Q: What sequence folds into this?
């Protein structure tokens, strides 16, 4: 925990001087604030026509005030004095707020920039984490890490360095002023107040806690709603609307009951604490009044100034008391934040020199892979791909096809065996250089919220001619030219939305422009209608030529021309050969073919011959 603090404060260090300035301003502001309350004394005195600052011989604060402003305040008639006091109060309030504003501005600046540094650090680090990390962690969680946890962790700094300091400075200033006004009364207050707080706070915490727990049941409500909404098709097709409505109503009613019960407890916290604190206040006032009327140790106006200031002391003290709890929340966030930052990044993904594309072969040597220990997904995969070959992977869904191709750019590493390129283990090749050899087109082409140009030339700067050439080869020129601003049209969430086939062609153009010697197509055509499939098919043919290609296709017609077909079943390589060979062999590939071409509604495909 302490190490988390230390690491957090490393983010603050560049702003240390700004913070020091902010703290100084806070001190100034707190002193002026307390001072403006002391002005109540001459105000009351002039209001009641008493002699102004007559008690200068008894209280040091009055003496100070008398030294500075005594002459001015006493000049003229009582009305003039009253006006002068008011002017003084106004001036003090103005200065106090000015300094407070400046202090807050500085702290906000520091906070936002500390948070920015944290956010940028964690985001940058995420880019370099291995793919396996993202498989384990939900995207929503990661976004929370980047945006929410940094904000919450930052509040350690908000609280510790600004709020708490400000409250502490205010409290210390007030107490000092109170002591100067009447040390006896201050001592009484300082003894009774904390005593009651110590007794009261555990009770209050229990009461408030019950509310927090009930609030968790809201999650239940949310998950019911989410389930139904995301499965609305199912609900409707089963005519289960009424059933769902009732299920939600039941949970909803339970939640409401719990909330009422919890509130019955938590709402009592306020009244209880107010009753008790009024009790202390009354005791104090009674003692004070006794000092005024009985012993004459205190004048009425000083007493009133004292009580006013004591009341103002309550809120900073309360805030200070809550500090540990809020600190704990944010330190938890800080720890989650550092957990991401400490996750091992991939071995430097930057390019170290270039690596030649394979000239002899890419070979899998008895490769095993498992995502979770003890549950193999690939077993003893052994095959060779020669440069320029199109290698097709077929097999039922879940057979491990995508996993197999993920091994090539080292999104994941084999847990057994090895993969070599021209005899060299992939793990010996600098990661960035290895990946620069590959292009990937998959089922879901990611379209960024950016221009067509940036989407096609993703990650590089290319000339307009190059981009158009790629777009043309990808059969995407027609629709891109029809977009309102051509290559400069914004795509994505808040821009123009593309159809599935159009997205896919943008993805293919991206791959063509990158011109990789090695290409991976993972179900690139599986979610398309027949019409755009033909366009894409033609674009793909163009993309395939002159490269080594690993293609996974749902529709077997798209791969019948492959040089080599590998059939996977349950993580094992069960057949390998050309279409003709495998079809004749009558094994799993034959079964898959027959199934697909016999199936009604298979998109009117012709069995390849
Ligand atoms: N990130 C992952 N973590 C754990 N298991 C996974 C992960 N990705 C895929 N799998 C499992 O590995 C097996 C093979 O998946 P995959 O390679 O996607 O099959 P295919 O592409 O042939 O449909 C499946 O059983 C799948 O559940
Ligand atoms: Mg797959």
A:
């Amino acid at each position: 925990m302490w190490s988390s603090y230390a690491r957090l404060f490393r983010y603050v260090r560049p702003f240390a001087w700004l913070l020091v300035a902010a703290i100084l301003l806070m001190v100034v502001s707190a002193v002026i604030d307390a001072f403006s309350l002391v002005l109540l004394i001459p105000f009351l005195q002039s209001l009641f026509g008493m002699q102004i600052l007559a008690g200068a011989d008894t209280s040091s604060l009055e003496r100070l005030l008398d030294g500075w402003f005594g002459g001015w305040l006493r000049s003229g008639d009582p009305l003039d004095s009253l006006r002068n006091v008011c002017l003084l109060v106004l001036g003090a309030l103005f200065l106090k707020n000015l300094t407070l504003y400046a202090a807050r501005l500085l702290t906000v600046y520091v906070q936002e920039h500390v948070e920015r540094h944290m956010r940028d650090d964690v985001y940058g680090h995420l880019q370099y984490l291995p793919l396996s990390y993202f498989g384990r962690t939900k995207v929503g969680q990661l976004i929370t890490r980047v945006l929410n946890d940094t904000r919450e962790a930052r509040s350690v700094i908000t609280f510790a360095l600004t709020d708490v300091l400000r409250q502490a400075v205010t409290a210390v200033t007030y107490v000092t002023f109170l002591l100067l006004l009447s040390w006896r009364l201050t001592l009484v207050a300082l003894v009774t107040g904390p005593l009651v707080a110590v007794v009261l706070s555990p009770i209050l915490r229990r009461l408030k806690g019950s509310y927090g727990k009930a609030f968790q049941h809201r999650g239940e409500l949310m998950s019911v709603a989410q389930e139904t909404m995301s499965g609305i098709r199912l609900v409707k097709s089963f005519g289960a609307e009424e059933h769902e409505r009732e299920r939600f109503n039941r949970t909803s009613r339970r939640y409401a009951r719990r909330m009422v019960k919890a509130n019955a407890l938590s709402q009592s916290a306020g009244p209880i604490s107010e009753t008790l604190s009024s009790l202390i206040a009354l005791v104090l006032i009674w003692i004070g009044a006794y000092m005024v009327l009985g012993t004459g140790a205190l004048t009425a106006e000083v007493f009133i100034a004292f009580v006013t200031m004591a009341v103002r002391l309550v809120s900073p003290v309360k805030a200070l008391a809550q500090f540990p709890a809020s600190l704990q929340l944010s330190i938890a966030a800080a720890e989650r934040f550092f957990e991401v930052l400490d996750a091992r990044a991939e071995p430097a993904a930057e390019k170290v020199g270039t690596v030649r594309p394979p000239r002899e072969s890419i070979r899998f040597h008895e490769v095993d892979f498992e995502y979770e220990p003890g549950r193999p997904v690939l077993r003893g995969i052994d095959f060779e791909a020669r440069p320029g070959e199109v290698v097709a992977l077929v097999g039922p869904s879940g057979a491990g096809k995508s996993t197999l191709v993920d091994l090539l750019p080292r999104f994941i590493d084999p847990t057994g065996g090895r993969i070599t390129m021209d005899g060299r283990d992939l793990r010996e090749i600098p990661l960035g250089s290895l990946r620069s050899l590959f292009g990937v087109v998959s089922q879901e082409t990611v379209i960024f919220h950016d221009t067509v140009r940036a989407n096609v030339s993703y990650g590089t700067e290319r000339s307009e001619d190059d981009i158009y050439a790629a777009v043309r080869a990808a059969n995407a020129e027609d629709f891109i030219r029809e977009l309102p601003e051509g290559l400069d049209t914004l795509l994505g969430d808040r821009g123009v939305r593309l159809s599935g086939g159009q997205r896919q062609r943008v993805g293919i153009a991206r791959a063509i422009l990158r011109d990789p010697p090695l290409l991976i197509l993972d179900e690139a055509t599986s979610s398309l209608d027949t019409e755009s499939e033909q366009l894409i098919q033609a674009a793909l043919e163009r993309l395939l030529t002159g490269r080594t290609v690993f293609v996974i296709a749902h529709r077997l017609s798209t791969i019948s021309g492959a040089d080599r077909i590998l059939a996977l079943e349950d993580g094992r390589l069960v057949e390998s050969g050309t279409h003709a060979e495998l079809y004749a062999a009558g094994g799993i590939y034959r079964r898959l073919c027959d199934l697909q071409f016999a199936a009604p509604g298979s998109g009117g495909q012709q069995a390849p011959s």
